[in-house]
């Protein structure tokens, strides 16, 4: 009698289990149908709270990722910045990855800032006989070991920028190229012969031009980039202080595309542009460089005698700077004052408050050249 009862109990349990499974399957089907209906409502209907919540969550997540990346860049060491930047430049140049101009710019600026930090308030940088191998700043040696790769960043053109006032597209320089130029300017301001000689030999793979020549042409091409203008001014004037002629001589070659030829053309165009407010954005920087070259002509040092000869034999340059009421004099007069009286002037000193932090005035350039000529 016990066996049939156990069998009946077992059968009842199996029936209960089957009923539970069927019930669970039915509930799962209902849940699936409800989810499909909700999905259809969210996708096909008006934007609901659930969809807005999802988008907000995604936006917050993306912002958090960007903040994490920015924080990572702030905390990155100079060694990591250098290695990451060089690897990125190689990958972009080889076509292995697309240009991330903002990321590369951040890395190069981190490198530039670290360089300035290491070079500020040092008394052992301009010691006679300082060579690159024994240079007292390790970061300078590391950067110079990778300088051929770093300058390739100057060839990476970002997308065009859109002006705020007119909405027109203009060529963009990109923060990565300004940062690369800044690194070069700081290196030239050190005054190390080995560094000057290495930079003098650098050429860009895109056009085969010397790096300094390419930067001079960028100065005039990207005429609304004040950051680039300030950096290139310091770079040019720091190069002219060097006694190594191959560093700066190519800038004065090329006729109309030379430094003095481009300055003469820009000055002529600026005077012909009325009203003044419609002039190109690099006019002020053009005046600084033109005045510096005029004062360079007035020097009598032996090292830059060839530059003076080139300037004196350039007819376009002579027409710009010679005569009582020459073109450069007219622009200088405009800068000196107007209806409200003379404009305030400031003559920043070279390397006065940290290398690379100031634009060298043309007057300071004259004093620097005279200082070198006297062998002091």
Automatic annotation (TrEMBL):
<feature type="region of interest" description="Disordered">
    <location>
        <begin position="1"/>
        <end position="79"/>
    </location>
</feature>
<dbReference type="InterPro" id="IPR007587">
    <property type="entry name" value="SAPS"/>
</dbReference>
<feature type="compositionally biased region" description="Acidic residues">
    <location>
        <begin position="62"/>
        <end position="77"/>
    </location>
</feature>
<dbReference type="GO" id="GO:0019888">
    <property type="term" value="F:protein phosphatase regulator activity"/>
</dbReference>
<dbReference type="GO" id="GO:0019903">
    <property type="term" value="F:protein phosphatase binding"/>
</dbReference>
<dbReference type="Pfam" id="PF04499">
    <property type="entry name" value="SAPS"/>
</dbReference>
<protein>
    <submittedName>
        <fullName>Uncharacterized protein</fullName>
    </submittedName>
</protein>
<comment type="similarity">
    <text>Belongs to the SAPS family.</text>
</comment>
<feature type="compositionally biased region" description="Acidic residues">
    <location>
        <begin position="12"/>
        <end position="42"/>
    </location>
</feature>
<keyword id="KW-0131">Cell cycle</keyword>
């Amino acid at each position: 009698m016990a066996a049939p009862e156990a069998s009946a109990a077992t059968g009842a349990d199996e029936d209960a289990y089957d009923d539970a499974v069927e019930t669970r399957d039915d509930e799962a089907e209902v849940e699936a149908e409800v989810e499909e209906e909700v999905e259809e409502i969210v996708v096909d209907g008006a934007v609901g709270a659930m969809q807005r919540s999802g988008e907000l969550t995604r936006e917050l997540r993306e912002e958090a990722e960007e903040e994490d990346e920015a924080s990572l860049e702030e905390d990155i060491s100079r060694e990591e910045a250098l290695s990451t930047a060089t690897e990125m430049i190689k990958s972009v140049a080889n076509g292995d990855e697309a240009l991330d101009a903002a990321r590369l710019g951040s890395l190069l600026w981190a490198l530039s800032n670290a360089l300035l930090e290491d070079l500020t308030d040092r008394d052992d940088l301009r010691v006679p006989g300082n060579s690159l191998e024994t240079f007292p700043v390790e970061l300078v040696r590391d950067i110079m070991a990778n300088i051929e790769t770093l300058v390739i960043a100057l060839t990476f053109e970002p997308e065009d920028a859109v002006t705020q006032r007119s909405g027109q597209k203009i060529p963009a320089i990109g923060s990565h190229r300004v940062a690369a130029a800044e690194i070069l300017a700081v290196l030239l301001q050190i005054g190390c012969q080995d560094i000057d000689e290495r930079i003098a030999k650098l050429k860009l793979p895109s056009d085969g031009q010397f790096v300094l020549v390419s930067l001079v042409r960028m100065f005039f091409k990207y005429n609304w980039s004040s950051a680039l203008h300030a950096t290139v001014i310091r770079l040019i004037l720091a190069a002219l202080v060097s006694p190594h002629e191959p560093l700066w001589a190519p800038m004065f070659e090329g006729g109309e595309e030379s430094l003095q030829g481009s300055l003469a053309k820009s000055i002529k165009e600026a005077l012909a542009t009325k009203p003044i407010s419609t002039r190109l954005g690099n006019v002020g920087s053009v005046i600084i460089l033109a005045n510096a070259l005029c004062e360079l002509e007035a020097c009598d040092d032996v090292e830059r005698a060839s530059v003076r000869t080139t300037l004196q034999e350039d007819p376009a340059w002579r027409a710009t700077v010679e005569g009582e009421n020459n073109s450069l004099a007219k622009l200088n007069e405009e800068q000196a004052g107007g209806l409200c009286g003379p404009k305030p002037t400031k003559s920043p000193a070279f390397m006065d408050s940290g290398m690379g932090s100031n634009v060298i005035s043309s007057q300071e350039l004259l004093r620097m050249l005279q200082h070198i000529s006297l062998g002091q």
